[in-house]
Amino acid sequence: MSRAKQPHIAVVGAGAFGGWTALFLRRHGARVTLIDAWGPGNSRASSGGETRVIRATYGPRAVYTHMAARALALWKEHQTRWRRQLYHGIGVLWLVESDDQYEKAAVPILRDARIAFEELQGAELARRYPQINCEQVRWAILEKDAGYLTARRACAAVLEGFLAEGGEYRQAAVQTPIDARNGELSTIKLSDDSSLTADGFVFACGPWLGTLFPDVVGERVRPTRQEVFFFGTPSGDRRFTEEALPVWADHGTRFMYGIPGNEWRGFKVADDSRGPLFDPTNGERAPTPEALQIARDYLAYRFPGLKGAPLLESRVCQYEQSPDEHFIIDRHPRAANVWLVGGGSGHGFKHGPAVGELVARLVSTGATPDEQFRLSRFAR
Ligand SMILES: Cc1cc2nc3c(=O)[nH]c(=O)nc-3n(C[C@H](O)[C@H](O)[C@H](O)COP(=O)(O)OP(=O)(O)OC[C@H]3O[C@@H](n4cnc5c(N)ncnc54)[C@H](O)[C@@H]3O)c2cc1C
After folding, report:
1. How many whole angstroms from 15 Cα to the centroid of ligand 1?
2. Is the pLDDT of residue 380 over 80?
3. Burial of 77 (0-12, 13-18, 19+ CB in 10 A)
4. Which atom of ligand 1 is nearest to the CA of 176?
């Protein structure tokens, strides 16, 4: 495409959704400027921190199983291309104690999507993983081609790849209000008093999306406070490393999950229950004793060998929760050249490359997104 005909697209937000979108838009031949207030995978962003789980088990939501499969292929392709490990394929183990609706619904979808997995019964599980208390576990799904991704390091790698392919990056905050007139947006104001004019705009602002577009998105993206803990394992003990354990997801009364190796940062334990509303800009990120106690109690129950393990680190992050936990991928209803991308709802990171690929195609072709991702679903 000649430079004269090249559309200029501004992508605001260099997290999992925006970074990959910018990269794929560049590959569609656009001139792309990626803008972020604090940097890709920064400590306030939902994509911050060391690691994220990648799995294809999604209960009855086949759309995300297929999206995760596509994303995994893209993660693998890019880590080879960029010569750095972003994906750790240590598997994901889904433990089922009582209610197994979610896992049961997932099995035929996993099969249909040709995801490599095994169904394990309680006794077999206890034999393979003696470090897990399997007394109450009835059965499990072991996703073999799944595991974890590096988070902030992957966001930095995407930026690097984007720059190497001719993208432009600016560290600045886009100022509100965003002023779309006559059905289009032409210019955004930045925190350094400059402005940026482009032909199209993608806002992938994670937990900030509702504040930037209060009338169109507003509370449809609610930042919720989530706490993550990293416990110390006994020195030299390999039972709790990624050599011996996969990522686990415990879809019991509380949905607890964790990552054993976690880039050597300690044994990660998190509670997926949605916490209270959180201010992603000014919120203090100190953990609460209550959430720590839940993590400790869980650890003592599920991994008795780690009972009383010392806390090494903790993180407070936020989900960018949509009402139905589906993503938001849509045009702004009153500005045809503005796209809104977000609502990762605690499960968006793994899908970054597939979302980026999809959004770049939509922006480049003008196609309409699937109904399940559109804002109009909330009006029904
Ligand atoms: C604790 C925790 C655990 C999670 N676990 C998993 C998991 O295991 N697997 C998984 O797949 N997902 C997981 N998720 C969800 C996943 O991390 C998110 O859905 C995903 O990272 C969201 O990416 P994003 O690009 O939409 O948002 P973000 O990463 O928040 O990116 C938005 C970016 O926009 C920038 N920005 C905002 N406003 C402006 C502005 N005005 N001007 C310029 N820039 C701006 C911010 O600086 C930020 O970098 C988890 C999330 C959390 C918090």
Report:
1. 5
2. no
3. exposed
4. 41
- Residue of 21, 52, 277 with the most ligand 1 atoms within 8 Å of its CB, for mutation: 52
pLDDT digits (tens, 9 = 90+) for 275-314: 999 999 999 999 999 999 999 999 999 999 999 999 999 9
Helix axis angle, 352-365 relative to 62-82, nearest 10°? 100
Contact 245, 239 (CB under 8 A): yes
- Taking the centre of ligand 1 as the mean of its atom positions, its distance from the CA of residue 358, in whole angstroms, is 18
Is ligand 1 within 6 A of the CB of residue 21? Answer: no
Q: Kindly report the average pLDDT of the chain as a whole number.
A: 96
Distances in Å between the alpha carbon of 119 and those of 112, 137, 143, 186?
A: 15, 12, 9, 53
In whole angstroms, give the CA distance from residue 323 to residue 277.
13
Task: Sort strands 139-143 and 328-332 into parallel, antiparallel or unpaired.
Answer: unpaired
Phi, psi dihedral angles at 202 (to 5 degrees):
-120, 120
Residue 1 confidence (pLDDT) above 80: no
Report whether pLDDT(98) > 90: no
d(CA 349, CA 49) in angstroms, rounded, equals: 11
Task: Report the predicted TM-score, pTM, of the whole model to 2 decimal places.
Answer: 0.98
d(CA 260, CA 2): 49
